[in-house]
């Protein structure tokens, strides 16, 4: 149960007013604060590896509501989270700074010429290799303690959210709402994969793509303003909102080499080197690091990110129209030639990591079909400025189109022993590369299909579900059955399996050809072909989560 | 109080200046809204202050519905009898009925009605000779005064209980809000709120406050003036931070795991056209009507600054509200789902003739066996919170939904507040769900 505390928050109230820039000195305001939260242990066991997660989380959330004559609503919200993942102490042969890799990609494929050309990734390079650490400075350069205690860092990630929000009713009845602080802003209607929901970057090192996005979005310091216009003669509801992400840019966290979850195994690729010294008569005397530098945008006004959304309800449809200028949250590799025009890389590093500016327009709509008694969801985003990986030069800028078609229906199946309806939710996530090239490991068009089938027994306290996702280009599939047991208001137990197939796709790599093997290779490009499901093909796990909420 | 009086006068003036059919006769108005003006009903041996229990239940079988009779006979509960009291609805609603309902008629199709403005559409006594009498009574419920033009239940405790062991399995704490967009009589603006492009009739908005795993779950239901149009329902899940549309299948599902369907809310929360309505007759029955302030209340579940306490529960498994019951005039109406895949085969509603609330409903499963019993205790507004005095709203004050097949129940404890400031129009919007969800 949450706790309610009534107190006097005069200083805080004044601070809130100042933060909102209203210039209005609020009088001491009686404030009611409610607290809630949980402690949780998540222990995962990976087939053939052992414990892959022993995550212990404590999270507290509070909301303080202030009484105000100026605002219709004035409140302060915060979410604090601390995590200790004991996997680095319990299974340090497999994970952590001392974890060794026989070859690059050992955790998802066999050896070939590419794995002879590339060295194994270095686990936690800042604990093992000062040069690599320096090259990766600022991005995926965590040390082991950063992984062990992921929120306790110089970015103060233990403050998951902290924002003040105020609603002001205008004379015409419209509502002007402002929210300032560290927060998550959620756009779109998609589960598991993101199309419009791209304002906050994501921490995939927590549990790949499988944790709730609420828990893995990386909150940003932002200002949001909304003009809630309500109904008019055409729309039942409409709202215009502006999002200004003025935080220093942060990319997605893909997981540092040595962590138990590193999506696409990118972390180990970034901490590997090319054995170019093996080229007879070449200019190289030692392996060349794959990454030379990470060019994270510095904070400047020009580097902030801005979005606008108009959304509303029209008849049986809810819709949004979205526009966003932001930065690509996945790294783009820019080739560094040995000399201008040379097809061979510089001796101090093959690529620089960059995060290009991206402009997005898109929209979403959902519609209830009376005839089918089902809900259709559509979401689409068109971007310009994204850079996709390719063999030549590492990347190419291309426009992208992403879309999702979702279908949700509730079905009563008495034969399955419950009067509660089962939820069937399916999605088809599509991606189209408009300026596709043959040397891009991603197909010009690809689709991922997801199915969720969830049932409810014993007054919803026992809930089994199955999630299946299939990546068509990767020919990989993940199956995630689980059952959740909630005996009372406090305890929750979740037991699940997560196993995958696929991860066998290869892709031609020109460097291997130069070494005399023109066949398709696993490294480094096939990681993109195989995607987050295929690259994790050896990560079959049994997962137990125990949570106590208060 | 003065303000409410002025509002009543205003609605009276408003309706007086509109183009009107002939007024409903005073005899019908008196019969419909003041059934106890000439005295309370009686039943042999029944007296206020007495208790009906396992020992004397047979004597009073005729004034009990089959569900309550079964519970008392089994010794699961006993009920205390109170004096019959008049629950006068707000004068503005009575006046609107007088002025607007003279020429209201059912349409040719099921679920169709001629244009109505406000008030009880069919105030005349139902007749068993009228094959559509049940449908008319259902319309009287739909356009009833219920929670008035707007109201809130804040907070609202739902407790899931094992009836056998009495164990409280889960407690959900909500805030609920209700708003009529049309058919308004007592709160400005009336008779309708504009703009209203989709011609919504009513909105229901609910937000979960506790426990943590479902905190910030929100439900919004928009019901249309056009009864043939399916409700639009939206759900906001706190962990997804997104508003999702609900298919109507979810309105007949266990709401958040409780024994209550969304379709059960307030007695019946669906379209008239979803059911075939069959009037079974007029009876005098013991119904859960009482004065909240005169009950022995639950001092533990809820405490607040104004000293309000919620209704206590007892009986088998703690599934029965500790309230008093009074002998009242009741219309017995069966509703049979049109959809053959509906999880129930029939509900038998016992509609209170004066208020057109539905305090008692017995639910039958697809096989025709008794499945659930739905009790919604009604408190007199003048013996409740001071803010409710004079509102003319029969206050939903305690509920229990008992699944007799699963030996399980969900109980509800209310703090009902008739205050338009708690339920502004923008609270019934999709944007509000998103903004309130954090």
From TrEMBL, chain A:
Pfam families: DUF1302. InterPro entries: DUF1302. The keyword Signal applies. Residues 1-30 form the signal peptide. Keywords: Signal. This is DUF1302 domain-containing protein.
TrEMBL record, chain B:
The lineage of its organism: Bacteria, Pseudomonadati, Pseudomonadota, Gammaproteobacteria, Oceanospirillales. Residues 1-21 form the signal peptide. The keyword Signal applies. InterPro entries: DUF1329 (IPR010752). This is DUF1329 domain-containing protein. Keywords: Signal.
């Amino acid at each position: 149960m949450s706790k309610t505390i009534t107190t006097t928050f005069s200083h805080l109230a004044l601070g809130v007013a100042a933060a909102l820039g209203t210039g209005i000195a609020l009088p001491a305001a009686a404030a009611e604060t409610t607290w809630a939260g949980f402690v949780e242990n998540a222990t995962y066991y990976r087939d053939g590896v052992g414990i892959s997660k022993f995550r212990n989380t404590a999270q507290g959330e509070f909301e303080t509501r202030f009484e105000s004559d100026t605002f219709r609503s004035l409140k302060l919200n915060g979410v604090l989270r601390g995590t200790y993942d004991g996997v680095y102490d319990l299974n340090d042969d497999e994970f952590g700074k001392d974890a060794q890799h026989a070859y690059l990609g050992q955790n998802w494929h066999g050896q070939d010429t590419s794995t002879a050309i590339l060295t194994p990734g270095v686990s936690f390079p800042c604990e093992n290799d000062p040069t690599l650490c320096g090259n990766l400075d600022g991005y995926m350069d965590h040390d082991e303690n950063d992984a062990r205690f992921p929120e306790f860092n110089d970015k103060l990630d233990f403050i998951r959210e902290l924002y003040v929000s105020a609603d002001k009713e205008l004379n015409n009845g419209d509502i002007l709402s402002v929210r300032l602080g560290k927060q998550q802003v959620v756009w779109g209607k998609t589960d598991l994969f993101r199309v419009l929901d791209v304002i906050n970057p994501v921490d995939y090192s927590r549990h790949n793509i499988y944790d709730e996005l609420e828990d893995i979005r990386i909150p940003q310091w932002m200002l949001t303003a909304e003009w809630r216009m309500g109904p008019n003669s055409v729309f039942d509801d409409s709202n215009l909102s502006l999002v200004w992400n003025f935080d220093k840019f942060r990319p997605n966290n893909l997981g540092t080499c040595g962590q138990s979850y590193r999506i696409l195994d990118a972390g180990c690729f970034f901490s590997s080197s090319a054995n170019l010294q093996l080229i007879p008569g070449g200019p190289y005397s030692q392996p060349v690091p794959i990454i030379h530098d990470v060019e994270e945008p510095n904070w400047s006004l020009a580097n902030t990110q801005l979005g606008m959304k108009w959304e509303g309800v029209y008849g049986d449809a809810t819709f949004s129209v979205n526009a966003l200028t932001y930065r690509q949250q996945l790294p783009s590799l820019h080739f560094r030639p040995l000399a201008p025009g040379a097809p061979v890389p510089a001796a101090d590093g093959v690529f620089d990591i960059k995060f290009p500016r991206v402009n997005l327009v898109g929209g979403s709509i959902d519609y209830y079909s009376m005839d089918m008694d089902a809900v259709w969801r559509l979401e689409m985003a068109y971007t310009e400025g994204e850079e996709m990986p390719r063999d030549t030069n590492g990347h190419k800028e291309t426009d992208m189109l992403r879309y999702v078609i979702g279908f949700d229906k509730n079905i009563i199946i008495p034969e399955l022993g419950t009067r509660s309806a089962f939820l069937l939710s399916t999605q088809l996530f599509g991606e189209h590369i408009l300026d596709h090239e043959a040397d891009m490991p991603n197909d010009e068009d690809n689709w991922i299909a997801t199915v969720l089938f969830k049932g409810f027994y014993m007054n919803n306290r026992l809930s089994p579900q199955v999630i299946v996702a299939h990546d068509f280009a990767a020919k990989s599939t993940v199956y995630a059955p689980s059952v959740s047991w909630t005996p009372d208001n406090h305890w929750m137990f979740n037991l699940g399996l997560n196993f995958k197939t696929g991860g066998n796709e290869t892709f031609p790599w020109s460097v291997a050809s130069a070494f005399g093997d023109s066949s398709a290779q696993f490294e480094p490009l096939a990681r993109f072909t195989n995607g987050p499901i295929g690259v994790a093909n050896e990560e079959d796990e049994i997962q137990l989560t125990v949570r106590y909420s208060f | 109080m003065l303000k409410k009086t002025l509002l009543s006068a205003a609605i009276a003036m408003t309706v007086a200046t509109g183009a009107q059919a002939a007024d409903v006769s005073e005899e019908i108005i008196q019969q419909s809204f003041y059934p106890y003006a000439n005295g309370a009903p009686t039943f042999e041996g029944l007296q206020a202050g007495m208790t009906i229990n396992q020992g004397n239940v047979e004597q009073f079988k005729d004034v009990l519905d089959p569900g309550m009779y079964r519970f008392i006979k089994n010794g699961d509960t006993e009920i205390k009898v109170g004096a019959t009291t008049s629950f006068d609805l707000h004068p503005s609603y009575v006046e609107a009925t007088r002025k607007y309902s003279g020429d209201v008629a059912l349409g040719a199709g099921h679920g169709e009605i001629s244009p109505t403005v406000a008030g009880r559409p069919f105030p005349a006594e139902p007749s068993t000779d009228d094959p559509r009498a049940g449908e008319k009574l259902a319309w009287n419920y739909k356009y009833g005064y219920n929670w008035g033009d707007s109201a809130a239940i804040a907070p609202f405790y739902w407790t899931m209980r094992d009836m056998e062991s009495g164990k409280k399995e889960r407690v959900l704490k909500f805030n609920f809000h209700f708003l009529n967009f049309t058919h308004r009589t007592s709160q400005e603006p009336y008779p309708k709120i504009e703009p209203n492009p989709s011609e919504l009739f009513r909105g229901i908005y609910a937000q979960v406050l506790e426990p943590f795993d479902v905190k910030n779950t929100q439900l919004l239901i928009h019901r249309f003036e056009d009864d043939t149009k399916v409700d639009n329902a939206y759900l906001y899940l706190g962990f997804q931070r997104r508003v999702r549309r609900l298919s109507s299948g979810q309105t007949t599902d266990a709401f958040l795991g409780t024994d209550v369907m969304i379709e059960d809310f307030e007695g019946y929360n669906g379209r008239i056209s979803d059911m075939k309505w069959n009037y079974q007759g007029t009876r005098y029955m013991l119904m859960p009507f009482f004065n909240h302030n005169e009950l022995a209340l639950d001092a533990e579940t809820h405490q607040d600054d104004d000293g309000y306490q919620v209704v206590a529960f007892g009986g088998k498994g703690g599934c029965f509200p500790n309230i008093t019951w009074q002998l009242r005039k009741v219309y017995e109406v069966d509703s049979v789902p049109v959809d053959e895949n509906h999880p129930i085969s029939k509900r038998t509603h016992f509609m209170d003739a004066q208020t057109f609330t539905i305090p008692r409903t017995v639910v039958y499963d697809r096989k025709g066996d008794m499945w659930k019993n739905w009790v919604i205790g009604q408190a007199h507004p003048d013996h409740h919170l001071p803010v409710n005095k004079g509102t003319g709203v029969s206050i939903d004050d305690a509920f229990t939904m008992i699944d007799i097949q699963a030996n399980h129940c969900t109980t509800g404890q209310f703090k009902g507040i008739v205050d338009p400031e708690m339920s502004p129009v923008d609270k019934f919007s999709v944007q509000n769900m998103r903004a309130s969800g954090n």
